[in-house]
Automatic annotation (TrEMBL):
This is Alanine racemase. One of its GO terms (molecular function) is alanine racemase activity. Its EC number is 5.1.1.1. It comes from Halanaerobium congolense. Substrate binds at residues 138, 315. The modification N6-(pyridoxal phosphate)lysine is found at residue 40. Pfam families: Ala_racemase_C, Ala_racemase_N. Belongs to the alanine racemase family.
Length: 374
């Protein structure tokens, strides 16, 4: 596909692959279990305003974001389904919760009381999901505090409890001992509420890793994130999961150069040619979210072959060797993440070189990169 954009650096998003990943998730979970698509961080760098409407069309029942402003963005994109803000927020953000008809994760008695007052002022009920800390150590009520929080929220006139949830800290590991301990704590806390005579709302704890490897987490709702975008949460999971990455990161060759033996390349002269070498200049760098840690280590695809990076990745330029690749011309398409012919460079491969996770690689791609949805 020939792409004419403001600059020769772009992201392609494959909606067919997104649908395939969605169908894989549906095939894994119980029929009664709903899907709450996690589209925080601009849908992990994939473009929430485009991704969410497509997922809604496919049948997703809920959406999850990390802050009220992300929820407002989805409303502006036409999403009418429930949107859950997963993180705690400050009082200055409360008005956006009401404005966007969002559901807020409530992790403290103070938050519940403050939202009740805001609801009274706005003359409407504020929907909340109570958060239980079963071992993540991040936010939430401890299991022995949940009953008290539930009873307080039930008494308040302007609070509606729509759900209770927790988050699995180590579901992406082969050893599920810790996850089972979390499930036990969660179920125990829920039993205390049942014994008090209260009816439970939507219950959820399953994340992407649990959808693949932990059927016991299939409750009323599951919260797939990274697997919607075709990426595994970790290499420790079942690698037979039928997932297809939906993102490709591409650019074009803007210049070809021939350097003589002993020539230095880039800042710090960290690479010197041993022989004369043909090089291609790419108009991308760490300002685009392409990691500087790939300097002298990473590779790109040109004409279906791997081309190694020479020297340091600069802010807006990267140099690669094409000495071994025939017929390279200015304007040729270059794949930094994705497939070209039979070769592929994955976000996971880049993450391993950089000592991080694939989540960070795709999330850090610059929002200034134009996106094409195909």
């Amino acid at each position: 596909m020939r792409v004419e954009l403001k600059r020769p650096a772009w992201i392609e998003i494959d909606f067919k692959a997104l649908e395939k990943n969605y169908n894989f998730i549906r095939s894994r979970i119980d029929k009664k279990t709903k899907i709450a698509a996690v589209v925080k961080a601009n849908a992990y760098g994939h473009g929430a305003a485009k991704i969410a409407p497509k997922l809604s069309q496919l049948g997703v029942e809920y959406f999850c974001v990390s802050s009220p402003d992300e929820g407002i963005e989805l409303r502006r994109a036409g999403i009418k389904k429930p949107i859950l803000v997963l993180a705690e927020v400050l009082e200055t953000q409360y008005s956006e919760i009401v404005k966007g008809d969002l559901t807020q994760a409530a992790a403290s008695l103070e938050t519940i009381s403050a939202l009740d007052k805001l609801g009274a002022k706005a003359k409407k009920k504020v929907k909340v999901h109570l958060v239980v800390d079963t071992g993540m150590g991040r936010i939430g009520f401890f299991p022995d505090q949940l009953n008290e929080a539930y009873q307080l929220a039930k008494k308040l006139k302007n609070i509606k409890i729509d759900g209770i949830f927790s988050h699995l800290a180590r579901a992406d590991e082969k050893d599920k001992t810790y996850s089972y301990q979390q499930l036990q704590k969660f179920n125990s806390a829920l039993d205390n509420i049942r014994e008090s005579g209260f009816k439970l709302p939507l219950i959820h704890i399953g994340n992407s890793a649990a959808i693949i490897d932990l059927k016991e987490s299939f409750l009323d709702l599951v919260r797939p994130g990274i697997i919607l975008y075709g990426l595994l949460p970790s290499k420790n999971l079942n690698n037979e999961a039928a997932l297809t990455p939906i993102l490709s990161f591409k650019t074009r060759v803007v210049q070809l150069r021939q350097l003589s033996a002993g020539s230095a390349i880039g800042y710090g002269s960290t690479y010197k040619t041993e022989n004369k070498e043909k090089l291609a200049v790419l108009p991308i760098g760490y300002k685009d979210g392409y990691p500087r840690l790939l300097s002298n280590q990473g590779e790109v695809l040109i004409n279906g072959q791997r081309a190694p990076i020479r020297g340091r990745v600069c802010m807006g330029q990267t140099i690669v060797s094409v000495d071994h690749i025939k017929n390279v011309e200015v304007g040729d398409e270059v794949v930094l993440i994705g497939k070209q012919g039979e070769k592929e460079i994955s976000a996971a491969e880049i993450a391993e070189i950089c000592g991080t996770i694939n989540y960070e690689i795709v999330c850090n791609l610059s929002e200034r990169l134009e996106k094409i949805y195909v």
